Amino acid sequence: MSIKAESIWAAQPSTTRGQPTPISSDPRGERIAYASNKSIFLRSIDSPALSTQYTAHTTTTTVARFSPSGYYVASGDIAGTVRVWDCTGSGTTKGEFPIISGKINDLAWDGDSQRIIAVGDGKEKFGHCITADSGNSVGTISGHTAQINCVSIRQQRPLRAATAGDDASTVFYHGVPFKFNTSLKRHQRYIYGLGFSPDGSTLVSVGADRKIFLYDGKTGEAKTEIGDGEHKGSIFGVSWSSDSKRFTTCSADQTVKIWDAEAGKAIHTWRMGSDEGVVSIPDHQVGVTWPAARSDDMIISLALSGDLNYLSPSSAKPIRVVQGHQRNTTAIIPTPSQPPTLFTGSSDGRVCAWSTDTGEATTVDGAGHTNYVSGLASDNSNSKIYSVAWDDSLRTVSHSSTDIPTFTGSHHKTDGQPRGCATCSEGIVVVTHKGITLLSPTDNSVIKTLSTSFSPVAVAAVDETIAVGSDDNTLRIYSPRGLELKHTLPAFPSSISCLSFSNPAAANSNQPYLAIGFSSGRILVFSSTNKYSSPVIERWSAHTARVTSISWDARAERAVSGGLDTDVFVWSVKKPGGRVSTHGAHKEGVGGVCWVGGDGDADGKGKEGRVISVGGDGTVKVWKVESVE
């Protein structure tokens, strides 16, 4: 009896409009590192579904950089703390160092992987130089009058470093110990990107004034300005090729460009998003890295939407776009197909479709939600997914095995804030804080609306039964025909947080079970056999905080639950005291759970299955469950 982590489908990098987002790649060109919410992710370039999550930061993370040796990562957060940790497998934290009293914007390693300079928006200072193993000071960062946005260290000796920031100054340092040498003010506005070439001969800076300046990498002497007028928006990032002859830039004009450093000309341009002249804010390019040691010359850029664009000089368009969630993932539903497609929704309104075979996500196309997705439901035809969100709307997603999932044009405006949705024999049930609405599955037209004296908080449905939990701690059972009230259960001691029916066609179940999750962390299981008069299982009570989601396996023999306590539990119906769990499954809590596979056969064999969970860290995690009896 066990539950084991199988894979992590990583969250996308966190981005902010008008600000650069650092991303970096390892020396072998195999992985990228970036910050997302309160985690750091190391993600395979060739197989994005393979990733590692570092969760030791206690506040929002901002930057992560691989050491030149490739054995360690240094990461920073908004509290001004830098952590150095092993990235070869164990994830062990080597050191935790308070740098400044504010947000870390960027950091850089020296060529020996022994020293780090971290910069940002501090109150007493804007950066500091430390040793990577002990945090001892190895210099002083000075010469700036505003926050520092970027830093780079020359990888050869004599060591040189450069910083730049909101005061439009580029400051050059000699080391070690690092100390102020000169300050150059070529830019007219904020400087967002800075980088020494791999051979140390040249330093490049880019910024909000859309200008690119080159400096001598050893002396700091200004050399030339290139590309005047090429970019039409702020330049947010720069990265060198391993041959030190070319570099790439990304910009708010939705373009990524490759530059010939010697000729001073752009030699390749990609434009993301819509046609030329049509502004697409989500396609602003806010970060870029040029992975070393790769034969394909690939560049990876980051869009404001969180999309990672894989760019090749041999193609005018991205050869691959890696998508997913940036924010708290709040809802999950698998399709009945085999293999199932997984749909997830997040607090920013994004809905994604995931291949459970490959772990790749596709953002649902079309006009979607603009706010917190509070519920997802699937119809039995396997062609539609219904979603509700706090933009007070129900929308329909059309999907098939061959086409890109797309929001259809029709949607229903709800009369209040939706708390959830479900499908039954008569159509789609949506509960809002004002009441219950039954909608037609063909055109989302209203069949019946029931205004209630209570405020519904959760809903589940199966065939001819609708269960609604309310803010008065009461569960009510309705018939889909006319929304007729059938049963009202006595009020529970704590508030209902989620509901889930088991599969009525389960081989070992004559009737569907109804699991009720509570804000206290307890779960009760009822059956229609006794008209829900008393629970048939009362021992599922291991959660220590609100239960956010419950899902049954296809045989109705096991259930999985997730809660705000960050835990995922798998429960047994045959032995209610038997359970397996994984603690700390999702940083900031579990938002949803579901079963995929593990149906078993008639003689009870083949009970292995997979549980998929989503949560506050924006990830989708796959767990292998074995022999829960």
From TrEMBL:
Alphabetically ordered keywords of this record: Repeat, WD repeat
GO molecular function, one term: actin filament binding
Residues in WD repeats: 54-86, 184-225, 228-269, 322-364, 540-574, 611-629
Domain of life: Eukaryota
Pfam families the record matches: WD40
Compositional bias annotation for Polar residues: 12-24
One of the record's GO cellular component terms: cortical actin cytoskeleton
SMART domains linked: WD40
Family matches, as InterPro entries: WD40/YVTN_repeat-like_dom_sf (IPR015943), WD40_repeat_dom_sf (IPR036322), WD40_rpt (IPR001680)
Protein name: WD40 repeat-like protein
Example GO biological process: actin filament depolymerization
SUPFAM superfamilies associated with the record: WD40 repeat-like (SSF50978)
Sequence segments annotated as region (Disordered): 1-29
